[in-house]
Amino acid sequence: MNPASANNTLLIIVGDKSADIYGAKLASELKKINPTIKIIGTGGDNMRKEGVEILYDVKDMSVIGLWEAISKLSLMRKVKRDIMDLIKTKRIKAAVLVDFPGFNIHIASEIRKENIPVIYYISPQVWAWRGGRIKKIAQRVNKMLVILPFEVEIYRRAGVDVKFIGHPLFDVIEDSDKDKLYHDLGLDFSRPIIGLLPGSRDKEVRFLLPSMIDAALLIKKKIPKSQFILPKAKEVDGNYVKGLIREKGIDLKVINGNSHGVFQIADLSVVCSGTATLEAAILGAPLIIIYRLSKVTEIIGRKMLKVRHWGLVNILAGEEIVPELEQEEVNAENISAYALSILRSRQKKDLIKAKLSRITSTLGEKGASQLAAKEIIEFLN
């Protein structure tokens, strides 16, 4: 690598599937502004497609819960060591850290020691748990780009240079051709459609999908014309899903991805807590949020959590606007009871949609990735 290109090199660190999608959009916008920029970092297939040189894949780095995090400590030490070696040998001009706070807040300190500016894109949820991290962030981060409007004041009070850019989900959600979806999937638009979204990690799916299918069978008994669809993440073991469907004896259509398409045609979706819940909210799709953690992770999480709800939609609303089930509450009876109450009531569905619309109207609009790129490019000039 020659000195000219070395001075144009940006490091991006992401640690999960959602961040890989946002990182790809960011890389695309950065290259529109500066076509000669070189981007290196951690990521996945989406960032690879945008020409990012991937050092470690997010499928190996992503974790759920305390025990899985502990099991990957050795790998994460190696990731950190290799990234720091890269920084010292390739003269990185700036570093962009995307979410992934357990790793990124820590490595930010080491990067700053090398006199490299650190831009944090998508803030750790310091308002929800472990608020003390904001002191470390203030010491280690040159610029914080937040995607939730109320985060601005939190960081300003801590003396952090902060900017609200809007939520990048608006950049990745696309309108689907509903008629084509109905046709391709053999779905009848005149009959109820229920989406099942058990998450994008195998562990989540194994925790949640059996209860979701059992709930679907109960719904089918009460509303025989119900149709069920599952948009499977690429990372999820398809053989496990197929085997479970055969075992349970349910008519469940499985498609590859396209959760936003499912949200646009479903009358209701049962969704694992996470980014997909906000995607549903942006699309005005009624949903039930479910989540299940290991007992140890739950105990530790409850001691640290500063908000009443687990689901981001309800956290943003400050109230439970969609049903939220966690831990032992996640069972077929509870899921089906909430689902039936919504499916049978146009008034409930309309109220949920109205409240979701009020929340998402505060999150900005398309263009967050472009705004982030413009802020980041300043550190390369």
From TrEMBL:
Presence of the UniProt keyword DNA-binding in the record: no
Pfam families: LpxB (PF02684)
EC number, as in UniProt: 2.4.1.182
GO biological process: lipid A biosynthetic process
The UniProt record lists the keyword Transferase: yes
InterPro entries: Glyco_trans_19
Reaction it catalyzes: a lipid X + a UDP-2-N,3-O-bis[(3R)-3-hydroxyacyl]-alpha-D-glucosamine = a lipid A disaccharide + UDP + H(+)
GO molecular function, one term: phospholipid binding
GO cellular component term, pick one: membrane
Pathway: Bacterial outer membrane biogenesis; LPS lipid A biosynthesis
Keywords: Glycosyltransferase, Lipid A biosynthesis, Lipid biosynthesis, Lipid metabolism, Transferase
Function (record text): Condensation of UDP-2,3-diacylglucosamine and 2,3-diacylglucosamine-1-phosphate to form lipid A disaccharide, a precursor of lipid A, a phosphorylated glycolipid that anchors the lipopolysaccharide to the outer membrane of the cell.
Annotated family: Belongs to the LpxB family.
Protein name: Lipid-A-disaccharide synthase
Species assigned in the record: Candidatus Schekmanbacteria bacterium RBG_16_38_11
